[in-house]
Design a protein that fits this description.
GO terms for molecular function: antioxidant activity; oxidoreductase activity. By secondary structure, the protein is an alpha/beta fold. Helix content is 40%, strand content 16%. It is globular.
């Protein structure tokens, strides 16, 4: 009897471990990222001139949000690299980085590892992300004439393999062709992926304060 109970306990422990790993590595990234309590709502057409005054006036800007510790960001980087190589003559790319340990050396590591030749900005407190209404990675923000043209996902899932749902690239093509922002389904605009570390810290602080 004891052997049976021990076997059952070990089996349940193993299944629990497998379930936890599946949640951590896969399933939770298929769900929308939790929305922060203090999220600033930023919509298509909103001006960002006061937020990012150094942006060029004529050339559009593609802002890529990257979390060094996010598996979705690491998988998405190949898609982003491809877009930089293809469109860098037509638009200015900027990568905005965060990491869980807020290590400033990771900017240099990012530059060396991916060698994209673009501006890379550290955003440890999430001020840039907050100003643009970003709380998850990977996310893309397209800016034209200091206004939001597109803000949302690269694709409908972390695996950027479906051409028909490459939302960021479709929006970029439309912007470069002088077209109005395309209409996208909610799946393009609902954030999926990893919550930004700055949002996690802010939410934890808010939860602690609410106790007292």
């Amino acid at each position: 009897m004891q052997k049976i109970l021990l076997f059952l306990a070990l089996t349940l422990t193993a299944l629990g471990g497998i379930g936890f790993l599946f949640w951590e590595q896969e399933y939770k990234y298929t769900l929308p990222t939790p929305i922060p309590q203090n999220l600033k709502q930023v919509e298509t057409g909103d001006s960002v001139e006061a937020i990012l005054p150094r942006l060029p006036g004529k050339k559009g800007v593609f802002v890529h949000f990257y979390n060094y510790d996010c598996p979705c960001s690491r998988f998405n980087i190949t898609e982003f690299q491809s877009m930089v190589r293809r469109y860098s003559d037509d638009i200015q790319f900027i990568a905005v980085l965060q990491s869980e340990d807020q290590d400033p050396l990771k900017i240099e590591e990012f530059k060396k590892k991916y060698d994209l030749g673009i501006e890379v900005i550290d955003d440890p407190d999430g001020s840039i992300a907050d100003a643009l209404g970003i709380y998850s990675t990977p996310q893309a923000v397209l800016i034209q004439d200091h206004k939001i043209y597109y803000k949302g996902n690269y694709n409908r899932a972390r695996f950027c393999v479906s051409r028909n749902t490459k939302f960021a690239e479709i929006a970029l093509d439309a912007m470069l062709n002088g077209e109005e922002p395309p209409y996208f389904p909610e799946v393009a605009l609902t954030a999926y992926g990893c919550e930004l570390p700055s949002n996690s810290e802010a939410n934890n602080s808010t939860n602690l304060l609410s106790i007292f």
